[in-house]
Write a structure and sequence with these properties.
By secondary structure, the chain is an all-alpha fold. It contains 9 helices and 2 strands. A two-stranded parallel sheet has the order 1-2. Helix 1 crosses helix 9, helix 3 packs antiparallel against helix 9 and helix 5 packs across helix 9. The longest helix is centred in the last third of the chain and has 37 residues. The protein is elongated.
């Protein structure tokens, strides 16, 4: 196995993509059905193994930096960092895009209807709902008409409460950035692991030929 570099650097998105494509292109090398063929082609085996080792050493130096990730640029910007280019190349992030749009909508809403005002209304609705439940637990046990009226009111108040809470319980840009980092980190590790597997497989064949 090639030794890892001691230094790290921000990734080169295009280079990572090229390495991933090369890794996929040599996937047949680890097919047990061509194992004997590889042994009869030592030059090709050596070239493939050396190339994989060099690429693995190179990719070890790449680092996914959270400082290079900003969801505002990824979803709305044009000037992206290399890390952001890499992220956009590996995932469409539709669900995170929805969360980001909710953040923007909440931000706009704050300008005319502050978060404090919305929280106050939510608290008042929760209080009203509790009052209706108390009515059901007391008088409602004897009066079915009142019970149905209370249940209908709870349903309506609950709907209003959910609508208000949906504007309060939104994600944060930091949370989205962290999840984007995790996606990129996982993808980079996945590529490294695939290279490691192929290198180990080919090294074992070389040992068998020695």
């Amino acid at each position: 196995m090639a030794k890892s570099k001691n230094t790290t650097t921000t990734i080169n998105a295009k280079r990572i993509q090229n390495i991933a494509y090369y890794d996929l292109s040599v996937g047949s090398l680890v097919n047990p059905n061509v194992r004997q063929h590889l042994k009869s082609n030592p030059i090709g085996l050596e070239v493939a193994l050396t190339t994989l080792q060099e690429l693995r050493e190179e990719i070890e130096g790449y680092e996914i930096s959270i400082d290079e990730i900003d969801c505002n640029r990824i979803f709305d910007g044009t000037e992206l960092t290399e890390t952001e280019v890499f992220i956009k190349s590996i995932h469409d992030h539709a669900y995170l895009r929805n969360e980001y749009d909710e953040i923007k909508q909440a931000r706009e809403l704050d300008k005319s209807f502050s978060r404090e005002e919305r929280q106050k209304i939510a608290d008042e609705l929760e209080t009203e709902i509790k009052k209706e439940y108390r009515k059901i637990e007391t008088v409602g046990k004897l009066n079915k008409t009142l019970r149905r009226s209370c249940e209908a009111k709870i349903e309506e108040l609950g709907k209003q409460l959910r609508e208000i809470l949906s504007t309060l319980e939104v994600s944060t840009e930091e949370s989205i950035n962290n999840r984007l980092w995790s996606i990129a980190e996982y993808k980079l590790r996945e590529i490294k692991n695939r290279l490691d597997y192929k290198i180990t497989y080919l090294e074992n064949i070389v040992e068998e030929m020695a």
